[in-house]
Specification:
Strand content of chain A: 25-35%
Strand order of the largest sheet of chain B: 1-5-4-3-2-6
Oligomer: heterodimer
Shape of chain A: globular
Strand content of chain B: 15-25%
Shape of chain B: globular
CATH topology of chain A: Heat Shock Protein 90
Number of domains of chain B: 1
CATH superfamily of chain B: HprK N-terminal domain-like
Number of helices of chain B: 5
Helix content of chain A: 25-40%
Strand order of the largest sheet of chain A: 1-2-3-5-4
Order of helices and strands of chain A: EHHEEHHHEE
Largest sheet of chain B: 6 strands, mixed
CATH class of chain A: Alpha Beta
Number of domains of chain A: 1
Number of strands of chain B: 6
CATH superfamily of chain A: Histidine kinase-like ATPase, C-terminal domain
Distance between the termini of chain B: 18 Å
Order of helices and strands of chain B: HEEHEHEHEHE
Chain lengths: 141, 114
C-alpha cells in the first residue's frame, strides 16, 4: 500500500437518502487495504455516526480521510449551527435532533458517545453559528 | 439458524438474498433505534426491525449485519433492496409484529445478544 492516502467526501445537510454514502466508500477502501475487520467496523461505525450528525444538524459538510500505515484519521467538518455546550452534547441521551431525524432511527443522544467508544482519539471543536469539526483517529495494528 | 429456516418459522417473504438461504445467524437483536444497533459488537447478527428506510440498510452495512427482517408488514423499497444487494444482504419481510417475530424465533432457538 502507498505510504499515505487521502480522500474527501461532501455531505449534504438534510439529505437522509444519501446519508452513509461516504462511510460506505470509506469501508470499501479499508477492505481493499485489508485492514482488520474489527478495525473497519469501529472506523465506519464512528464515521457513519458523524456523517448522520452532519445530515441531521448541519447545512453541509466535508469528510476528510487520511490513512497511513500507522493510523486512520477522519475529520468531519460542517457548516451549521455549531454546538453551544460540547460536554452536554457528549452526555448519553442528550439530543437536539428533530422529529424527522428520530423517524430515521437516530436522535437518541448516542452518536457522539458511540464515536468516542469506537475510536482511539476524538476531538470536537465548534463555533456557534458557524459549524462543528469532529476529528477521530483509529490506531492500526 | 439458517435463513431458510427463519423463512419457514416466520412464513416470511425473501425479498433479496435468494442465493444465501444457507447463511447462518448466531444471535438476533430487535430494535427500531439504529443508534442502538450501531453499538453492537457481535458478528452474524440478525436484525429484526419495524423501521424500513435507507438508514436501516446503511446501519446494517456499517455493522456488518447481513440479515434483516422487516416485521409488522413493513416493506423494503426498490432503493433499499438495491443497496442491500450491493452489500450481499438477505432481506426478509414478515407480517407479524416485532413481538411475535421475536417470540417465534426465540422459541425456535435463536439466541439474544444480552
Amino acid at each position: 500500500m502507498a505510504e499515505r492516502m487521502q480522500f474527501e467526501y461532501n455531505v449534504d445537510g438534510g439529505n437522509f437518502t444519501r446519508a452513509g454514502y461516504a462511510s460506505s466508500e470509506i469501508k470499501k477502501i479499508l477492505k481493499k487495504l485489508n485492514v482488520d475487520l474489527a478495525v473497519i467496523k469501529r472506523t465506519v461505525v464512528a464515521s457513519y455516526e458523524g456523517e448522520v450528525n452532519i445530515v441531521a444538524h448541519a447545512y453541509s459538510g466535508t469528510i476528510y480521510v487520511d490513512i497511513d500505515t500507522e493510523r486512520i484519521r477522519i475529520r468531519l467538518q460542517d457548516e451549521g449551527p455549531g454546538i453551544p455546550d460540547i460536554d452536554k452534547a457528549m452526555e448519553e441521551g442528550f439530543s437536539t435532533a428533530s422529529s424527522q431525524v428520530r423517524e430515521m432511527g437516530f436522535g437518541a443522544g448516542m452518536g457522539l458517545p458511540n464515536m468516542k467508544k469506537n475510536t482511539d482519539r476524538m476531538e470536537i471543536t465548534s463555533e456557534v453559528g458557524k459549524g462543528t469539526t469532529v476529528e477521530i483517529e483509529i490506531v492500526l495494528k | 439458524m439458517k435463513v431458510k429456516e427463519i423463512v419457514k418459522v416466520l412464513d416470511a417473504k425473501l425479498v433479496c438474498g435468494q442465493d444465501q438461504v444457507d447463511y447462518s445467524i448466531e444471535v438476533a437483536f430487535a430494535s427500531d433505534l439504529m443508534s442502538d444497533v450501531l453499538t453492537l459488537k457481535n458478528d452474524h447478527v440478525l436484525l429484526i426491525t419495524g423501521l424500513a428506510n435507507m438508514q436501516t440498510i446503511r446501519t446494517a452495512e456499517m455493522s456488518d449485519i447481513r440479515c434483516i427482517i422487516f416485521a409488522r408488514n413493513k416493506k423494503a423499497t426498490a432503493e433499499m433492496i438495491e443497496l442491500a444487494l450491493e452489500n450481499e444482504m438477505v432481506v426478509l419481510e414478515c407480517r407479524y409484529s416485532v413481538f411475535k417475530t421475536c417470540g417465534l424465533l426465540f422459541g425456535a432457538g435463536v439466541k439474544p445478544i444480552f
